[in-house]
Amino acid sequence: MLNIIKSSLNANMRGISLISNNIANSNTTAFKKSYSNFSDIYSKTIANDPKSFSGMGVINDSPRKQMFQGPLKQTDGALDLAISGLGFLTLSNSNNPESKFFTRDGSLGLSNNGEVINQQGLNLMAHPVIDDKTFNPNVFENVIIPPTRANNFGEEVILTNVNVSSSGVLKAVYGLDEEVVIAKIPLASFESMESLQSEGNNLFTPTPGSGEPNFGLALNDNFGEIIPGFLEASNVEITDELVKILKYQQAYSGNSRLLQTEIDVTKRLIDR
Predict the structure, then answer these.
(1) What pTM, to 2 d.p., does this model score?
(2) Vertex 39, ends 33 and 40: CA angle to 5°?
(3) Would you call 194 helix, strand, or coil by DSSP?
(4) What is the pLDDT of residue 42?
(5) Which of 74, 140, 206, 239 has the fewest other C-beta atoms within 10 Å?
(6) Where are the strands (E) in 197-246, listed by range?
(7) What is the pLDDT of residues 175-197, one digit of tens each?
(8) Alpha-helix residue ranges (DSSP H) falling in the chain
(9) Where are the beta strands (DSSP E) in 88-146?
(10) Residue 18: Cβ within 10 Å count
(11) Strand pairing of 203-205 and 197-200?
């Protein structure tokens, strides 16, 4: 009996911890909330008689990530990108370009040498565009926007603006009105987004359960739309989380009283 009560205490404590983490990240860009996944533990006899199954407690399995989209908030940042619908942006570490991360957090900026990076310094990956038109969908490169370039008269002009279309076409503006197409930003999808491995900082990596990424272009097939000047907010609803944490706390309190009763009964039996 003590082991059963202890397993319930541990499961409810894990649930409280997950809800507390959801609440703490309610203002984190593109954060995806998690819930506990409880499973009963049973014992059985060799005969496999259904009537002989008895409960042995509860375990808290791997948390379930809720991947549905959060609300979009306007920032007017040139490189703030939100995704409305299906899709993830692809990021990589400059030291290991083959190691890819996936995120819906489009808080991007420019480094000193023109690399498009996120807040952790990871590089945005996209299809490079040749002659302002063609691109190879099989080629992924880190996006680099040169801070300066030579215009048609051989004069050096500086970067003045960056534009991203809803289909993912990234353009740089030099000087007053000289536009140059830099890259085509693809989106990634997975068979089971809930099975992605969370790496922290709103970064995810594929697992056998999620499957390998499928790449495509925004507004094509089932992929969503890239919305510049917006960021996706957390999908945490504070009111719902407070209700859930109260339930976990009540269950924990009830199990604590049950544990104390069991200890008192056991102590009286020993003292007899």
Answers:
(1) 0.85
(2) 155
(3) helix
(4) 59
(5) 239
(6) 197-200, 203-205, 214-217, 225-228, 230-232
(7) 988 999 999 999 999 999 999 99
(8) 2-24, 238-271
(9) 89-93, 96-103, 108-110, 116-118, 123-130, 134-135, 141-142
(10) 22
(11) antiparallel
Token digits of residue 152? 């048609």
Residue 238 tokens, joined: 């504070």
Dig out the tokens for 14 from the structure: 């894990």
Write the burial class of residue 91 (CB in 10 Å: 0-12 exposed, 13-18 middle, 19+ buried).
Answer: buried
Sign of CA dihedral 205, 211, 217, 219: negative
Any idea how long the chain is?
Answer: 272
* Calpha distance 59→138 (Å, rounded): 44
Please report where in the chains the tokens 């490079």 appear, as a residue. Answer: 128
Q: From residue 67, give the alpha-carbon distance in Å to each of 166, 190, 203.
A: 22, 12, 13
Query: What is the chain's pLDDT, residue by residue, as a tens digit (272 residues)?
Result: 677 777 778 888 888 899 999 999 999 999 999 988 766 665 655 556 655 555 666 766 678 889 999 999 999 999 999 999 999 999 998 777 778 999 999 999 999 999 999 999 999 999 999 877 788 888 899 999 999 998 888 889 999 999 999 999 999 999 988 999 999 999 999 999 999 999 989 999 999 999 999 999 999 989 999 999 999 999 999 999 999 999 988 988 888 888 788 777 777 778 76
Residue 102 is encoded by which pair of tokens?
A: 């996936």
Please state whether 49 falls in left (phi above 0), alpha (psi between -120 and 50) or beta: beta
Q: How many CA atoms lie within 13 A of 220 on its CB side?
A: 11
Identity of the residue numbered 155: E
Cβ neighbours around 159 below 10 Å, total: 17
